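User: Please fill in residues for this 218-position structure.
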């Protein structure tokens, strides 16, 4: 049995990542591809507990190093409990965020640095890398405006100022330029526009993976 493929969707606040993950799941399933969908931080019982602490921890402030290590603990569990076994069984994995989030948010945003975060990422993942990472890109102000319209309560990251979010965005752009397998996709326009761009990247990255239903379908 051939190993499954690992696709990650990334991006800053308000880029519409979760919507696109849902749409990409449908696209893959319509193409006859078995897929497990997960998210970070989270995806396991332990990881979802860590997610609550990191995103919504009340009162106590979390320093950048502690924040990073908590997120990495969740990632280590996710790789060993979910991602690794699924790929080994020939199932594809689609994750809402993975290691690039730590490089962008903690490496660039919090200022820990890419090389330090990169080393810790490797330890947490055991070297398991995504086959394709799609980074959705949008100007910070537009992301903030989209979130305002959505009217959800804000987590710790969404409450950060535009300087932090600007560093995160620049980080993603630099990472996409310098890393193979990472593509930058504009998150501008309608959800259907963005979906079309993502489908093209997926079809390009995995030309032999789809049955007759995809990737041209719908
Ligand atoms: P997300 O699931 O995108 O939240 P939402 O659906 O509300 O947009 O992301 C959770 C937050 O965690 C996001 O603001 C970024 C942060 N995060 C990091 O800072 N580093 C990481 O390594 C990961 C995985 C997430």
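Assistant: Residues filled in for all 218 positions:
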């Amino acid at each position: 049995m051939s190993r499954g493929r690992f696709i990650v969707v990334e991006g800053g606040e308000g880029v519409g990542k979760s919507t696109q993950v849902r749409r990409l799941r449908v696209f893959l399933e319509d193409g006859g591809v078995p897929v497990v969908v997960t998210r970070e931080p989270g995806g396991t019982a332990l990881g979802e507990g860590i997610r609550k602490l990191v995103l919504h921890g009340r009162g106590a402030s979390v320093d950048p190093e502690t924040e990073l290590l908590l997120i990495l603990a969740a990632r280590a569990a996710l790789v060993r409990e979910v991602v690794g076994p699924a790929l080994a069984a020939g199932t594809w994995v689609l994750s809402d965020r993975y290691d690039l989030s730590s490089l962008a948010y903690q490496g660039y945003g919090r200022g820990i640095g890419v090389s330090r975060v990169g080393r810790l990422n490797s330890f947490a993942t055991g070297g398991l890398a995504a086959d394709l990472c799609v980074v959705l890109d949008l100007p910070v102000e537009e992301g903030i405006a989209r979130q305002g319209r959505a009217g959800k309560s804000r987590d710790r990251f969404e409450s950060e100022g535009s300087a932090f979010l600007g560093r995160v965005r620049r980080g993603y752009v630099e990472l996409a330029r310098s890393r193979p397998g990472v593509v930058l996709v504009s998150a501008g326009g309608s959800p259907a526009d963005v979906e079309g761009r993502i489908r093209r990247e997926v079809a390009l990255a995995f030309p032999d993976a789809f049955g007759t239903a995809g990737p041209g379908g719908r």
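For context: The two ends are 29 Å apart (CA to CA).
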